[in-house]
Amino acid sequence: MEPRERGPGMGDAMEGTDLLQVELDRFTGPMDLLLHLIRQQDIDVFDIPIRRITDQFLTATEWIRAANLDTAGEFLEMAATLIGIKARMLLPRPEAEEDEDPRAELVRRLLEYEQIREVAHRLERAEADRARRRTKGWVEERPGPRPEDVPLETTWEEVFKAALGVELVEPVDRHHRVTPRTVSMDRKVTLILERLSDAPDGIAFRSLVTPFDDPMHGVMTLLAGLELGRRREIRLRQSAPFQELWMYLRPGERESS
Amino acid sequence: MKAEQIVEAVLFASDAPLRPDEIARADESLDEDVVEAAVAALRRYYLESERAFDLVELAGGWQILTRPEYASYLDRIDTIPRPSRLSGPALETLAIIAYRQPIGRVEVEYVRGVGSSGVIRTLQDRGLVEVTGRAETLGRPLLYGTTTHFLEHFGFDSLEDLPRPDELPVVLRDREVPILPEEADDEAGGQEELSLEDPE
Amino acid sequence: MKAEQIVEAVLFASDAPLRPDEIARADESLDEDVVEAAVAALRRYYLESERAFDLVELAGGWQILTRPEYASYLDRIDTIPRPSRLSGPALETLAIIAYRQPIGRVEVEYVRGVGSSGVIRTLQDRGLVEVTGRAETLGRPLLYGTTTHFLEHFGFDSLEDLPRPDELPVVLRDREVPILPEEADDEAGGQEELSLEDPE
User: Fold this and answer.
1) In this complex, do A151 and B86 lie within 8 Å of one another by their Cβ atoms?
2) pLDDT band at B177, cuts 50/70/90?
């Protein structure tokens, strides 16, 4: 088991890298990856070190994006969720909400997901056992009864009830789908650095996002900003919760790296 | 594992007759002679213990079959009609066809949001729905409507008797309401926003 | 014809499990009790005479299947169909649907954290999952449940055979949880009133 340390960003991310020496596409999705990270490090699920996990998750997500997996967009959604929790952990909590841990919903989902994984394993074993028994290979075709001879027990009330329930349903798959390749984090990193090089007084996060009018750009810009912060290339500052997020260049650090 | 048992398992599970040399591939311990001997032993055994099945030589190979004298029992299993009910999707599809006939498959699928050719087929097999014509639109798709059997079964004299109370969804209450968006193509995956306006 | 032989013939000629009442339709001399007795006698007999097959209780009925120890021999024969196996995502999705049925697509996706319409469609195509109705909630989304074929595929007699959640050895922590927050959207918004308990 890995030792449980709570050092700052960079070291944790590296540790995450070591932990992820596995095929990335073996993860069925972000929940699976998250569960893996938590189990691997023997983390107490009721006290998740959210900063460490978020950093590790972001590192892994970068690789997943690089590997162009279909599910990259969903990993990004989870990354955004984690960042959101991390941000709320940093905020001073109002008295009234003292009991509410920002991680609560995540913990609930993790516990439920772990259980589902266990069931999936049981099903896999049951399937393997069942597959060892074979049915009769050849069975003579016999003419069945003519369908109109089959007594139908359905009543008009049932049909009418179904009629009342009819409405135009949106076709499946028209659900919002995140398209990972259109917004690249690298491009956002470049954009932030370019803009900052002309702005000694820093720039507002909002000004980077507004022109795009698309939540995915916001997520990617935030990820890029956090990444640059982790690399100590920029500084992030926020005067108060929910206030504007400002970014500043750290020239000295950048040249040395 | 005895040769006899391996041969029995193989013949039971195979979906086609097998020659002795094919059966022998199941295990290194088998060859054609061993298989022939096992088949003979099994046949004798099935006969003596009065099994309902037998080994039969067919198309140059062997197959396990039920003895012919049981054919009449087997027929009854399938041909005695057992009462059945329509599934949820079938009820929904039947309701849409009943109220919007004549209607094409694409329109049904657009309303339901899922592919419906299987359900429509089931309703046709049951004699509740039939092809009533073709649309004049591109591709001249088949149009479906309900059958006389449908009216009989549900106790209606004619389609005019179908109740059309106000609580029915607009798309079923009023035949004039368009189902597909203006430039819908053949797939039910219409990209357009469909706005249903109340005709009143 | 003895009851035992008729029952054997019927079971032998079927490629799916049959319930006692279905078997009994083969002849007037049969009823469910007679069938049950015949099935028990046949099982005992197949065991004692070391047949390569066995009577198995499956999906609420009975079916003759080869004994598991012959699997490796059967795998070598081309005319014996290889049972198909489900992918990891398919098993995961099926696990959720099996336990939470009836359940909508959005709820499945919330548990898995990934879009699941393709997997659900595949499971439907393979007859493991079916639409069982619509939720009463906004948009009346389709609800899914498992089929009889699901039971057959995994060798279960009924849904009761699935492991109970409290039997599952979970590492993190076992607790009964509702599947969705009040208005689940894709964000894990975490506004739940769930208060974290001390793990001890």
Assistant:
1) no
2) confident
Distance to chain B for A126, nearest Cα, Å: 20
Identify whether the C-beta of residue C68 lies closer than 8 Å to the C-beta of residue A129.
yes
Dihedrals phi, psi of A27, to nearest 5 degrees: -80, 130
Alpha helix stretches (DSSP H) within chain B: 3-13, 20-23, 32-48, 71-79, 88-100, 105-112, 117-125, 148-154, 170-173
Q: Please name each of the domains of chain A with its CATH number.
A: 11-131 (no CATH), 156-169+181-249 (1.10.10.580)
Taking residues B81-85, report their average pLDDT.
Answer: 68
CATH number corresponding to B88-192: 1.10.10.10
pTM of the model: 0.65
- To the nearest whole Å, the CA of C131 is away from the closest chain B CA by 7
- Containing B146, the helix (H) or strand (E) segment is strand B142-146
Q: With contact defined as beta carbons under 8 Å apart, do B14 and A138 qualify?
A: yes
**Contact A28/C112, CB-based, under 8 Å?**
yes
Q: Rounded mean pLDDT of chain A?
A: 75
User: Mean pLDDT lowest for which of A174-188, A223-237, C114-128?
Assistant: A174-188
Cα C134 from chain centroid (whole Å): 21
Can you give the pLDDT at residue C38? 97
Check CB contact under 8 Å for A166 and B125: no
Domain ranges of chain B: 3-69, 88-192
Q: Which of A165-169, B40-44, C48-52, C100-104 has the lowest mean pLDDT?
A: A165-169
B70: nearest CB among C9, C18, C25? C9
This complex has an ipTM of 0.70
Integer-rounded Cα radius of gyration of chain A:
26
A161/B contact by beta carbon, under 8 A: yes
pLDDT band, very low/low/confident/very high, at A182 (cuts 50, 70, 90): low
- List CB contacts (< 8 A) between B15 and chain A: 137-138
User: Per-residue pLDDT tens for C135-168?
Assistant: 888 777 889 999 999 999 999 999 999 988 777 7
Tell me whether domains B3-69 and B88-192 share a fold.
Answer: yes
pLDDT for A247 beyond 50: yes
What is the token pair recorded at C86? 């489900």
Q: Which CATH architecture has domain B3-69?
A: Orthogonal Bundle (1.10)
Contact call for B96 and A166, based on CB within 8 A: yes
In chain B, which among 114-173 make CB contacts under 8 A with chain C?
114
Distance in angstroms between the alpha carbons of the first and the last residue of chain B: 79
**Yes or no, beta carbons of B74 and C142 under 8 Å apart:** no
Closest chain C C-alpha to B136 CA, distance in angstroms: 32
User: Which residues of chain B neighbour A177 with C-beta distances below 8 Å?
Assistant: none
- Contact A164/B167, CB-based, under 8 Å? yes
pLDDT above 80 (res C172):
no
Report yes or no: C67 at the B interface, CB cutoff 8 Å: yes
